[in-house]
Specification:
- The chain is an alpha/beta fold.
- Helix content is 32%, strand content 21%.
- The strands form three sheets. The chain has a five-stranded mixed sheet.
- β9 and β10 form a beta hairpin.
- α2 crosses α5.
């Protein structure tokens, strides 16, 4: 799976111009007015409420939190012992309008395609995404002999919230037509590990930031 990650980075780098200073996106010009968060079970009380509050403060949008029961067994891959995130997305009942976005939260270990795991995934055709806290909650130590990071328990609520927001903002940006970058000063930066996620900024930058401000959607200077 590590090779798949390396290949994915190479592929994206090959087809994108890196950096926030170059507007390589296909931005959506319709302002988003409402975000609907769906609790599929995150195992952390208050997290979605904190995410909702922060999202309102940052993006000038109305937010609403709902709950939905889905059939996780339908999305479960017994060979991988993981959950197919696309099969979870397909079970989300709410269909957002052009001025809405839907993001569901789960604590399941999700994957997409051949990747070992993903923090999240969004179907841009539906403007519906899923964020998983399964890996976001992990506290890392040093490296093991095989190169993998050692897990040393769980992070505190502040770091979990920051990681969740970074992951959510990147998925939200994708629904606004923003592409991936490798500029760590931008929340749209590609990150396939907690180390990369922790290093990158939580803010939009460059023309992505300007576009959100033009739509009256971004409160960060």
């Amino acid at each position: 799976m590590k090779n798949a990650h390396v290949f994915l980075k190479f592929l994206i780098l090959s087809v994108l111009v890196s950096g926030c200073g170059v507007f390589i996106d296909n931005p959506i010009n319709t302002p988003v007015k409402k975000i609907i968060f769906i609790d599929l079970g995150v195992g952390k009380e208050g997290l979605i409420n904190n995410v909702s509050t922060k999202f309102q403060e940052t993006f000038n949008v109305e937010t609403e939190i709902k709950k939905q029961n889905i059939d996780f067994q339908e999305a479960y891959n017994s060979k991988r012992k993981q959950y197919n995130v696309l099969k979870i997305i397909n079970q989300i009942e709410i269909i957002p309008s052009k001025e809405e976005r839907v993001f569901a939260f789960t604590d399941k270990n999700i994957y997409s395609g051949e990747l070992g795991f993903v923090f999240s995934s969004t179907d841009k055709s539906k403007n519906v995404g899923v964020v998983s806290t399964y890996h976001l909650r992990l506290k890392l130590g040093g490296k093991l002999e095989d190169g993998r990071a050692e897990v040393k328990g769980y992070v505190d609520e502040n770091l979990l919230l920051e990681r969740t927001l970074k992951t959510l903002y990147r998925n939200f940006g994708a629904t606004m037509g923003f592409s991936t970058t490798f500029d760590k000063n931008c929340v749209m930066a590609f990150s396939d590990s907690l180390i990369d996620l922790d290093k990158k900024s939580i803010e939009f930058c460059g023309k992505r930031k300007e576009h959100l401000k033009k739509l009256g959607m971004y409160n960060v200077n």
